[in-house]
Predict the structure.
Amino acid sequence: MRDSTSVLYAVTGNVATITLNRPDSLNAMTNDLMQNLEAALAKVTTDTSIRVVVITGSGRGFCAGADLAGQAKAKSTDPQAVSNLDTDAEDHFNGALRAINQCPVPTVARVNGAAAGGGFGLALACDITVAAKSAFFVATFGPRLGIVPDLGTTWNLPRRAGRARALGLFMLGDRISAEQAEDWGLIWKAVDSDQLDGEVKQITDRLALTSAEAMTRIRSVTDKALENSFSDQLDLEMAHQAVLIPKNMAEGAKAFIDKREPKFPGRA
């Protein structure tokens, strides 16, 4: 039976906040939690008033990765429990990560504490990641669990930090501080803990005024950049412009001349 309280969903204005809510375990990932995370993101897809999503954790942690204590307990009563984890990850864990990647509005990770293992992947999956300076990131997969990093960590980390740093983090399992993560280009910004909410609000206020379609197309075209040739990337940019210029450019230009914020059309 699914625990409906493992993820909280709240809307303020046109900002949806999704909170992982297992504070006693530092919001460790269970099948219920990941299924509820995916369900919360589905609400964003259907609610066209939402312009931006914030994902965060309750208590003192962001997300400690998979619930290893729960898995160990389940193993003691069901020998198949851990061996079934790969199937569960595909059904629930990867489904939630795909939902973030395909979210129709910008996503912001508010990292208030430890982001470990799959929590590291979750933090990197969002479009913009802001972390308290008291937070840290660690890839525990290889040295502690004898598995490969997952939840998109192997896709995001090498692209942002380079192969050498990615392999060092994956193979050695060292912690890196929020400030080091910012310095390496893994996250957007590290701020003092008492400034975290203010920083996230500034970002969401700005994103809420943008064209959600433009923002998600920016995400898409940026993610293709390392795969495409320069010429192919030029063509891809223009393919997006062909859709967005007729929708948004006139309003953007007029707002610039009028010295005001543009009022782009909402989501269809």
Summary: The longest strand covers residues 7-12. The two ends are 35 Å apart (CA to CA). The mean pLDDT is 92.
